[in-house]
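Input/output pair, single chain:
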Amino acid sequence: MSDAPALLRVEGLTKHFPVHGGPLNRRVATVRAVDDVSLAVAAGETLGIVGESGCGKSTTARLLMRLIEPDRGRLLFDGREVGAAGGIDVTTLRRQMQMVFQDSYASLNPRMTILGSIAYAPRMHGLAARAADARAEALLDRVGLEPRQFARRYPHELSGGQRQRVNIARALALQPRLVILDEAVSALDKSVAAQVLNLLADLKQQFNLTYLFISHDLNVVEYISDRVLVMYLGQVVETGPVAAIYGRPRHPYTRALLASKPTLDPDRRTISLPLTGDPPNPIDPPSGCRFRTRCGFADAVCAARTPPLAAPLGHPPDAHLVACHVPAAQQQAIHGH
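Output:
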């Protein structure tokens, strides 16, 4: 992790969803969507979160924004606990932390003009209408949309890439310090996605932003991130600097993910499946290490205890942490054979 102090720190974040059924609609099971997740994002950095669909990435984002209330866990923003006495409330948090969603159309009110959508939040927070409109126009220009051409349009008149630029401008309208990007470019064509990624990099520098970038696309995460956090079935299995995660992955799951990356290089084609089977059901996850049912290195200890997220045995403490009991699995991941 960067030497900068943590702007966002999460400790033990947990969210379980009840499943109801039967004639009386009673609680019959629990989906363990996010289980004891801890992370930190330093001021000015980009933390990428990756993992298969259903691993808890998007639920984590919604928990951070308090769109969903967590069951347990502490959230500290700039050293102040959210919701605690003497800390900060959710309204203040949302002025400092904004989110860009995957579905660019569903994120915008179809009855509001583009200018109105961007200016809405500043107006609600007390900025005069004329000043809010001026800020919205400036942000439109900054994200590459000419205000005179786009300000009076409606969402259905824009392309997907243009709408996502509007959503980015809207997220910046309250002048936040941290922006959560939840699959923000995954629905876009590759060329459009590349333009938006370059825009995000420029905006980060111009506005001194911190990003939490969530995606299933490993190439995109490698391009934009400073550090990476890998999730599997609601838990963190590995985290570290982007060069370490992509160059020397320590967890068998991370290694399998990287082996499944698409490539145009014929010499790097994947011959054998890097990972077999589907992820277990989050309603009834395996005991101990949740990856053990798909891991070729699983041992008795893997079923008995949940591995802590820590530096491997025999390694000095560093910023590259892994949740794995079996040194042989970590060694294979490190040396790639």
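The chain has one domain: 6-111+154-335. Confidence is low (pLDDT under 50) at residues 333-337.
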